[in-house]
Write a structure and sequence with these properties.
Largest sheet of chain A: 5 strands, mixed
Shape of chain A: globular
Oligomer: homodimer
CATH class of the largest domain in chain A: Mainly Beta
Number of domains of chain A: 2
Order of helices and strands of chain A: HHHHHEEEEEHEEEEHEE
Distance between the termini of chain A: 52 Å
Structural class of chain A: alpha+beta
CATH architecture of the largest domain in chain A: Sandwich
Radius of gyration of chain A: 24 Å
């Protein structure tokens, strides 16, 4: 016969301690540590909220439905993590950058690993929709020196607010995606289409929760970047349009002050001729600073 | 264009406050209160644990699998709530009893609402398996007066450790279930089979988690009761065998000190003859005290 735990039997007062004490023989110290924290905070939350049995069953049903909505193509628990700010918090914890380095934000679900290499200056907008946008800047180290041979992987929605992978057969393959490499001066430039705000998938339990909380499902317009170079930390980030209606209420909390870019409308005829376009265009100039590898 | 929240943009430091501030327009004050608590404790847990991106994805996958394992017949999220002690905590919060009243414990998934009424003294063991057990006691108010007309709904596993509903077609219908009503003296008595410990369903993600935590899936032997009477609070509880191997490590934390019963083996030939049985039997004497209705 086993012995009583030091904490004795479960009571409302000692509940978390009794449950944690059961993990004394866990096979993995990290798992035991994580579960201990989960149990303590979960019990503290329940004691604070004092859910009725019916409310607790509602929570169980919500989690079950969130699981049922998830499959190979849709991950409703990641969406839940996103709208509760947890994905961004995990990102922040794992990407603390030294002073002066560019900040990260969430990867999101629409990156594809095999986007084509393109020559610097290419137009990645293959469907011709939307307002023309010239994006340029430099990849620098924290001392302001240009980084040569940096790999820049960019992706964005089209003018309808969808990524190519959301509209297979409708958008051209690899529309608004491209991989570029910097030369000795560390500069990059390419043409795209001015991005637009768009909703996260809101036809599931997470969308319903947002509605009940009086929250909208929109992400403000942004461009995605992954910037990599030998000897530097990989940077996964976005740049945002500060004039977007949803810039202060990103449904997934991805916006940071330092990730604002200026989307400037260029109407100067001289610039229009010089860039070889047929009318006004947007220009976005944004440098990225990579942290040295740890 | 919307205004920035008072908290400004999301940072690692202010993460929970920024997310909570978004619920300012929630349609339901209780939902906003609950989500505020969930968000604060979830963020505090993440800041304490500092999960890697890979660990967070493991958590997402675990929750997804827990959802996928759940259907009309299996509720893996309730099982998760059970093994983390949350079901018992919610039970404790919702069933605070006045001094002297019997304590509650979890209902569990195996109650059926339509068990047959049986005359006092019936044998509810229809499959003839196991060791004979006589259960008896009184239903009392907090002043020690007997309660007449109390309804006592009991259920238990058979000697193989299964409830009838887990073995439809193998066990007789309503095996080891019955509903009894007390007379003026408040006493009850019936025959059953000595209950056995049994495992909770452990072939899913929750069972795997228990294994990784070095925990077994067993519940110590017990009898389930729901006791109801007009003018009194409904009591949902068990009584436990204190000599069970798992009495100090119930997988779902249902055991309370006050719910111990004595399972006494009666070998006295006089008693055997008096009870009209063919050999030794177990006797369990346990009174229940109902709290007055609030």
């Amino acid at each position: 016969m086993s012995n009583p735990t030091e904490q004795g039997y479960f009571t409302e007062e000692n509940s978390a301690e009794v449950v944690v004490s059961r993990n004394a023989k866990a096979k993995d110290a990290r798992l035991a540590e994580v579960m201990s924290s989960i149990i303590k905070h979960l019990h503290a939350m329940v004691k604070e909220v004092e859910p009725t049995q019916e409310e607790w069953l509602e929570a169980i049903k919500f989690l079950t439905e969130t699981g049922h909505k998830s499959d190979d193509w849709r991950q409703e628990f990641i969406l839940l993590s996103d709208v509760l700010g947890v994905s961004m918090l995990v990102d922040a914890i794992n990407n603390r950058k030294p002073s002066g380095a560019s900040e990260s934000t969430v990867l999101g679900p629409f990156h594809v690993p095999d986007a084509p290499d393109r020559p610097m200056g290419s137009n990645i907008c293959l469907d011709g929709k939307g307002e023309k946008m010239l994006v340029k800047g430099r990849i620098l180290d924290v001392d302001g020196n240009p980084i040569a041979g940096a790999k820049i992987d960019v992706w964005q929605t089209n003018d309808d607010g969808f990524y190519d992978v959301q509209q297979k057969g409708i958008q051209p393959d690899f529309n608004l995606r491209g991989v570029f490499r910097t030369g000795d001066d560390g500069t990059y430039w390419f043409w795209g289409a001015k991005p637009r705000f768009y909703p996260i998938p809101d036809d599931g339990p997470v969308g319903r929760l947002l509605g009940q909380l009086g929250r909208h499902p929109f992400r403000p317009a942004h461009l995605h970047y992954i910037v990599e170079a030998d000897g530097y930390e990989r940077l996964v980030t976005h740049i945002f349009d500060p004039d977007d209606d949803y810039i202060h209420s990103d449904a997934v909390f991805g916006v940071k002050e330092s990730l604002m870019a200026k989307f400037e409308k260029i109407e100067d005829p001289g610039r229009i001729v010089a860039e070889g376009v047929d009318g006004p265009f947007y220009e976005v100039i944004h440098d990225f600073v990579l942290a040295p590898e740890k």
